[in-house]
Amino acid sequence: MIQLLQTSWEDRFRICLSLVRLLHYLAHSPLGSVTLLDFRPRQFVIVDGELKVTDLDDASVEESSCTSNSDCFMEFPARNFTLPCSVEGRCQSMNEKRNLYNAYRFFFTYLLPHSAPPSLRPLLDKIVNATGELHWGIDETAAQLERVLNLYKSGEYLQNTTRVPKAEYRRVPEAHIPDENYRCWPSYHHKGCLLSVFDVNEAIEICDSYSQCKAFVLTNQTTWTGRQLVFFKMASNHIVPDPDKITYVKVTD
């Protein structure tokens, strides 16, 4: 978990999204609603950036039987819940809600909000709080996380922010700055500041927000959401030709 907290928010969001998609499948599986009774991080692995469950020994499709709501008691270390007993004598959505609360306490609360884009924080906080209180089922949780993904991929999350560049930048096509790195967190590169951006304007906004940033380099690499990876630099003293990159140099502060 400590290693995951050191990765970019985009990668942590992908883990949570893949977990919710998995839990949505389990809630609607051909066998019925499947719960993971031994739900812990060690039961999962990350494959190509997405969470996969590896241990199904303690999976169950049996919804608990009941005669009253008091029979539908779910106990967790931090809090407890009582779910309604259906007329058929089964605890309503207990398997689904158990999975969802475990996802909240082991993954969402750590991975979703931290270092997220500020304009997405209210929606992410709403998701974390709603799952932590079990106000939502898996269908609504999945729909809200897909909404976050769409806002992020489309750049709509930037529309509610004020984007007034503090500095002017000179565009240098087919050019790269090989050195002049500084570190930022979180970064896709442990020795430099490599971040993903929706467009050049967002890169300018990020560079303006770092006092040490004097230039940035657009690469031809993208993340899983299609966002462009950008190196942010502390100087532009040594610019070299590179047909796959575009450099922007700050000319005024």
Describe the overall structure.
It holds the Pfam family PIP49_C. It comes from Zosterops lateralis melanops. This is Protein kinase domain containing, cytoplasmic. One of its GO terms (molecular function) is non-membrane spanning protein tyrosine kinase activity. With 253 residues, this protein is α+β, with helices and mostly antiparallel strands. Helix content is 32%, strand content 22%. It has 6 helices and 11 strands. The strands form 4 sheets. Strands 7-11-9-10-8 form a 5-stranded antiparallel beta sheet, with helices on one face. It has a two-stranded antiparallel ribbon with strand order 1-4. The protein has a two-stranded antiparallel sheet with strand order 2-3. A hairpin with a 2-residue loop joins strand 2 and strand 3. The model has no long low-confidence stretch (mean pLDDT 91).
Features:
253 residues; alpha+beta; five-stranded antiparallel sheet; two-stranded antiparallel ribbon; 6 helices; 11 strands
Write down the overall geometry.
elongated
Name the helicity range. 25-40%
Sheet-strand content, in percent, reads 15-25%
Report the strand count.
11
Largest pleated sheet: 5 strands, antiparallel
Structural class: alpha+beta
Whole-angstrom Rg:
22 Å
Question: Mean pLDDT score, rounded?
Answer: 91
Strand order of the largest sheet: 7-11-9-10-8
- Give the distance, in angstroms, between the N- and C-terminal Cα atoms: 39 Å
Protein name: Protein kinase domain containing, cytoplasmic
GO molecular function, one term: non-membrane spanning protein tyrosine kinase activity
Pfam families: PIP49_C
InterPro entries: FAM69_kinase_dom, PKDCC
